[in-house]
Design goal:
Length: about 425
């Protein structure tokens, strides 16, 4: 019997070893696919160099880096441009953005265009190790070699800054290359942008920018427990960003769809941060401030054209329980004391200054994180050339308790033609913490 048990144990160990080796082989094989693309991608950018001055190429690269809003993650507040060090908080720990300046020791000084292209297209660093998708290569993968080379040329023109890259603070096993390789095998495949011949050139340009370099899905897509985008429509919303701001769905008419907006209003929102039907706050305000306000009129028009043609998901009727009378009375008193001066006694607001609260989709949204963040931290549109002195809402987190915020938001969500669920004190506490 002992020999039989030993034999079974030996067979089980051999089977487990073979299975592990097979799994490793599969993971490695899947993660080396498309590596040949480093050299086979048509380098149309090289041909462009012979007909355009280096100044024009640098300007183009700087513009494309603006489209990608690269500085927002790779520049610390008050720090040297693109020297890295910004912490990107994830459910798995903190990831620190790298140094993109041409420093030999700590930056991209020893990289060439092919190394940079591989990072953009295939999510691999110069030495071949796998990059974490906090660097949005799942979207950047469709960026053309020409655009990648132009961005790299611009980064190489920056002053070199010796600033060592910080080690990521990820929990085990997320801090291992094996876990990352398995994640990539399941959820990532290098791709190229496929032009839609039945669509206009304007639409295709907007699609290329939004799906690729602007990487909108990095925020506006639902994700699974492993952080991978799960929906067939990757702009259907669902991510909680830095400080728990919520990226709403760009498909749902009751969240952030612009299907019923005019092209001009969409362009205005991306360029100025404010428009007739809404304004940007929180994480999106940083995108407008650092990126979209600088885009060309043609690119803004192309993005508007694409966003307006996204499939529309209509609002579903939600059954909610009316708040108790004392909650509404208390919330109404808080509103009168702290909110009515700007938003009006009946929530009418001031056109072009303070938003109306009447049938306001931000107020009615099922996810209430943004409402809470606006009251706690304040709501500020970005300073832009088209809106140099934006009006804002002062932070009230130091004045109002969790119960105060819950009651006043419940009052607003069930007044002024709004029909939304009660907000609890626990929800406020969780969003505030």
């Amino acid at each position: 019997m002992i020999q039989t048990a030993r034999r079974k144990l030996f067979i089980a160990l051999i089977s487990a070893t073979l299975l592990t080796m097979a799994l490793v082989w599969v993971v490695v094989a899947l993660n080396t696919r498309d590596e040949s693309a480093i050299e086979t991608e048509p380098a149309s950018f090289i041909a462009t160099l012979s007909t355009a001055s280096s100044e024009q190429q640098l300007a183009r690269g700087a513009y494309l880096a603006r489209v990608g809003n690269c500085a927002s993650c790779h520049t610390q507040p008050g720090g040297a441009a693109y020297a890295g060090g910004v912490a990107i908080d994830t459910p798995f720990g903190a990831i620190y953005a790298g140094n993109l300046t041409p420093d030999i020791k700590t930056g991209l000084g020893t990289w060439n265009t092919s190394h940079f292209w591989r990072a953009m297209h295939n999510g691999r660093s110069k030495d071949g190790h796998l990059l974490y998708p906090a660097f949005p290569y799942p979207q950047m993968t469709i960026v053309t070699r020409a655009d990648s080379d132009a961005i790299f040329l611009y980064l190489r023109s920056l002053p070199a800054v010796e600033q060592p890259n910080k080690a990521h603070a990820l929990r085990w096993p997320y801090n291992t290359q094996a876990a990352l390789a398995l994640w990539r095998a399941m959820f990532f495949k290098p791709a190229r942008y496929q032009t839609q011949p039945d669509k206009s050139a304007l639409w295709n340009r907007g699609s290329y920018l939004i799906e690729g370099l602007a990487h909108c899905a990095a925020c506006h897509a639902p994700r699974n427990a492993l952080g991978a985008i799960t929906a067939d429509s990757p702009l259907s919303g669902g991510s909680l960003l830095v400080d728990k701001w919520f990226a709403p769905s760009l498909l749902h008419i009751d969240e952030a769809s612009v299907a019923n907006w005019s092209d001009a209003e969409v362009v205005k929102l991306l360029q100025a941060g404010v428009a007739k039907h809404g304004s940007v706050n929180g994480a999106m305000a940083k995108v407008v401030f650092g990126s979209t306000q600088y885009l060309t009129a043609e690119d803004l028009q192309s993005m508007a054209n694409y966003l307006k043609t996204l499939p529309v998901l209509n609002k579903q009727s939600v059954q909610f329980e009316p708040a108790e009378k004392d909650v509404m009375l208390r919330g109404g008193r808080i509103y009168e004391q702290h909110c009515a001066n700007c938003h009006g006694d009946t929530g009418e607001g001031v056109a072009g200054v303070y938003p109306s609260l009447h049938a306001n989709r931000a107020v009615n949204m099922q996810n209430t994180n943004n409402l809470i963040r606006i009251i706690v931290e304040g709501g500020f549109a970005p300073v832009t050339e088209k809106n140099p002195r934006p009006y804002g809402m002062p932070p009230m987190g130091h004045v109002l308790s969790d119960r105060d915020i819950a009651d006043v938001l419940t009052f607003v969500r069930q007044s002024f033609q709004n029909h939304a669920a009660i907000l609890s004190e626990l929800e406020v506490m969780q969003a505030r913490d």
